[in-house]
Amino acid sequence: MKKAIFSVFLMLGMFQLTAQEDVQQKDQNTFKKWQVRARFISIIPNESASIEAIGGDVSISTAYVPELDFTYFFTENWAAELILGTANHEVEAVNTAAGNIDLGDVWLLPPTLTFQYHYPIGDFKPYVGAGINYTIFYGADEGPVADDVDYDNSFGFAFQAGFDYALSEKWFLNLDVKKILIQTDATVNANSALGATVGADVDINPLVIGFGVGLKF
Predict the structure, then answer these.
(1) Which pLDDT tens digit goes with each residue over 69-114?
(2) DSSP assignment letter at 31
(3) Using an 8 Å Cβ cutoff, are 116 and 71 in contact?
(4) Integer Cα distance of 87 and 179 in angstroms
């Protein structure tokens, strides 16, 4: 009888140890599927333009704005990130036949979806990604010369690299660099000042550098 009782307790003890090992193994294998980051970013255009009739080029200002993004992990290594942010840029046509022309400013909203590969190295998690963006131009102020400036929305590619650094199980720091390919066909109605409507093929192609903090959940 005593041997039977001892055997039962021994089996229960072994079961408990096995269960604890299983739980520890599951904890090691689980990962947070969602991340949200708040970044402060600088948007640095690498602009160029082909301007009809009057020639010249374009100058677009750098912008500094907050940005929010959400990341969903399919596995520990593969994820998709949606970047949301908007920025205002001043625009000027430069070195044209009519001199430099102030074209006011315009707001850009370029929601961007990238697919990423993460490679965890302890608390340090570098990643690379690539995807697409759709840029919406809105709130254009035509400036003192033009009667109206219209920008076409456009699709483009995006590329990124960065890393997360864990501060705790949930919180982490983030550094991120993106190259976003943005192009627009702009139409400048300047009949009152120049007596013409001018079209331009404009490449903006900004480098976006961001630093911020993130939360896993």
Answers:
(1) 999 999 999 999 999 999 999 999 999 988 899 999 999 999 999 9
(2) -
(3) yes
(4) 16
Q: pLDDT tens digits, residue range 136-160?
A: 999 999 988 888 999 999 999 999 9
Virtual torsion, Cα 141, 143, 149, 155, nearest 10 deg: -60
Can you point out the beta strands (E) in the chain? 34-44, 48-51, 57-60, 63-73, 78-84, 87-96, 99-109, 112-118, 124-141, 148-151, 154-166, 171-180, 183-190, 196-203, 207-216
Q: Determine the CATH number of domain 34-216.
A: 2.40.160.20
Please state, as a whole number, how many other Cβ atoms lie within 10 Å of the Cβ of residue 112.
24
186 φ, ψ (degrees, to nearest 5): -105, 140
Query: Length of the chain, please?
Result: 217
CB–CB of 186/142 below 8 Å?
A: no
DSSP string, 102-139: EEEEEEEE--EEEEEEE--BTTEEEEEEEEEEEEEEEE
How far is it, in rounded angstroms, from Cα 199 to Cα 36?
40
- Would you say residue 209 has pLDDT above 70? yes
84 close to 210: Cβ distance less than 8 angstroms: no
Q: Give the angle 204-210-216 at the CA atoms, nearest 5°.
A: 130
pTM: 0.83
